[in-house]
Amino acid sequence: MAESISFYSTNYRAPKTDFFTAVLTGQAPDRGLYMPERIPLIDKADFQKFAGAPYFETARFVLRLFLNGISDAELLAKCKKAYSFVPRLEKASGKKHLLWLDTGPTASFKDFAAQMMSPLMGHKLTPDEKLFILTATSGDTGSAIANAFHNIPNIEIIILFPVNEVTPNQRKQMTTLGGNVKTIAVNGKFDHCQAMVKEAFSDERLGNMRLSSANSINIARLIPQSVYFIWAYAQLAKSMDEEVIFSIPSGNFGDMMGAILAWKMGLPIKKLIVATNANDEFPAFMKTGKYGKIEPSRMCISNAMNVGHPSNLTRLIDVFGGRMDETGNLLKTPDMEKMRGLIHAVSVSDENTRKCIADTYKKESIVLEPHGAVAWYALEEFLKEHKEENETLCISLETANPAKFPEEINKILGISPEVPESLSKLDKLKEDYVKMEAHYGDFYKYLTQR
Ligand SMILES: *Cc1c(COP(=O)(O)O)cnc(C)c1O
Description:
5-stranded parallel β-sheet, binds pyridoxal-5'-phosphate
């Protein structure tokens, strides 16, 4: 087994720790985010082996680099069980491809992290420990987490979602499970939900409750999200020297950080297109070097990306030698030139998102949904501006199934997207959730009554 890797906090005040402690803690005690102290390089020969290998094998290989405290056989069994579904690659015109990550049980890319995270979290829990997982969701995290942890003993899941910003389907995917899955509809925005969760983590009065997070601030979500970049590249690249452009629809930047980890592991990423909706705090930062959160966040049709301050930005800044605290204060500017060399950040309006859905259907006979369309639009614009890149392998991520957004798709294309089974059964199930104002005091009371 490889030499063990410790995890440090991006605020640099909490002690370094091992993977499983970092996973069960979620956010570091100094409110920073955990990062691996060292990111191992993968040999070209190993990348080559992933071509044609089952997805779970690639996952095992990548996770093995970062984890210790679990045997090879156990890790392989967990990967195999988690990934009974695999991503789907679809070729479009030119050298453009789509990486569909909607094949899991809740039809969003978040299944790829959540299904792997739940067995990892359960791994070190003793039978007499009770763990509460608090999660704020802008749409898809909640259902992916709820599904992954449903009926896992000793774990209770508490999910906060903004009452008016999730679609009925997204809501039903969380509120119909019952059992150890509790849901709270917050009269506010995603950022309020996230702030309430963060406050609970730093509330000393809750010291006797074992709390953890399943948001993309948890390192156990991040590492599995590096796997599909590596896997997709290995399937499509002609040789392991070929460079690749990825385009990623981004909100809280967990997906994008998965790509950054893959890049650090040696994946030859030529350009990473970070595509946001109208919440353009990051593209603005890349242009000006000045960072300002967007409060409140802007409502867009790609609702899982309505984030006015991405939690994982702290990690990106850290990778490029800067420092950002948990409130979004930039304490040290990262190497902007190096960052701009790798990352092309762009904001896409709802109008262009809709236009892209319509055009792509016409030109490519592909039905995109609003999140994937943000990335696809950004990629196409990038290729128009950089004609020399039209010969480069391009992979754009589709992060949800179009059937999760039937109203929007129907308005734009006049058709109803095909509904996968995971969604079609929802209407028959009973919903159960609590309503709450966006006040931490109310949430505190709720928690202490558990
Ligand atoms: C969560 C989500 C995103 C954004 O991913 P981040 O990791 O938060 O940047 C994009 N698309 C869909 C469908 C999502 O659910």
